[in-house]
Amino acid sequence: MQDRKEQILDIAGELLQTRSFSSFSYQDVSDRIGISKASIHHHFPSKEDLGKALAARYRLSYLNKLEEITQKYENPWDQFEAYLTLVGEVVKSGNKICPVGSLQVEHNVISKDMQDEVHVTCRAVQSWLVGVLAEGQKKGVIVFPGTAEDQGVLIHSAIQGALQNARAEGPKQFTAVARQLRAGMNGRGKGKR
Amino acid sequence: MQDRKEQILDIAGELLQTRSFSSFSYQDVSDRIGISKASIHHHFPSKEDLGKALAARYRLSYLNKLEEITQKYENPWDQFEAYLTLVGEVVKSGNKICPVGSLQVEHNVISKDMQDEVHVTCRAVQSWLVGVLAEGQKKGVIVFPGTAEDQGVLIHSAIQGALQNARAEGPKQFTAVARQLRAGMNGRGKGKR
DNA sequence: GACAATCTACCAACTAGTAGGTATATTGTG
DNA sequence: CACAATATACCTACTAGTTGGTAGATTGTC
Fold this sequence. Notes:
mainly alpha; DNA-binding
């Protein structure tokens, strides 16, 4: 049953986002899924295996969603708005944060393989953002100072921090960041886009 | 010996910033400090006590540093630059992140008391930033769209995320964010301040 | 003597991971 | 088709080690 593996990853993923990698145990997964702890080990021999699979699966699904956005909207500004909507859904869940942020905070605790997985995801997301920004700048629909690279890193960092702040301090921390990022890129209020 | 309590907090604080609250143990502190684990319990009966003291001490020292900045520089832009220098020192350490970020990621794992402590610190730092920004806007030395509140939340989130990204991905992630935050607030290159 | 700081020696609970076994499919081979 | 071999998915029961925390004795200092 391939579903079981996915089910384990679903639950482990939720625990990663609500707690942290080192704060959830095989027993937690076992309890929630209703099969024995040893059976979880059957599918993922070590916790590192589980973590690696978790990080890899997240990267694929996340980059896939970004790709969908790129194909659905041709206007870079709309793409950026769709990105904000996408990450905004994490805030709506009420008690989750970005898996990348969760793993980065445990950078010195996780294995090299997991670090690499997080690294690749991080680079890819930033690349996507930089692409959107550069295209938007070229078309004149997104305005910002400095380089698209710097702006991409800023947005990525701000969103990651905002998700963490939002869970601890309330969703307004996210909406404020989203609003301010928009305000800083639409030509300083010279119009509605 | 009051020094011992401080020494424990020093080491626990470093472990909080390099690993995470649930990823370090009394044994870790004991090993590094050279006294038995039971002796650590003598000073901080439970890990929650230790965590609370840690969060409280960090708040006091951090807010003190911000206060020093306010008094040392009268120009809000200089105050903001000093803030960037202050958090930049965390990046220089090579493997630390902001304690607030570390604790926020474990929000669902730590006690209510610790959550409250983090909350107060978070609010105070944002308040300080908003004050600097509002004053800078008034004097015309800091330029940004939207409200000072939103800009303060953006900066706080961006810096927090940047510190995490910088440890995992390298210091350039921080310098890029700092550069871009500056670029977005100095009147769009209309001058050097 | 009082008291703080420290120690050794413990405990129950939890951790990731293993050993050994069972029941049920799937697959290759005569 | 029949039947052995193999693989999958799961189980109970266990290991060795770590966790936060405690009890009680020892030491040093005012």
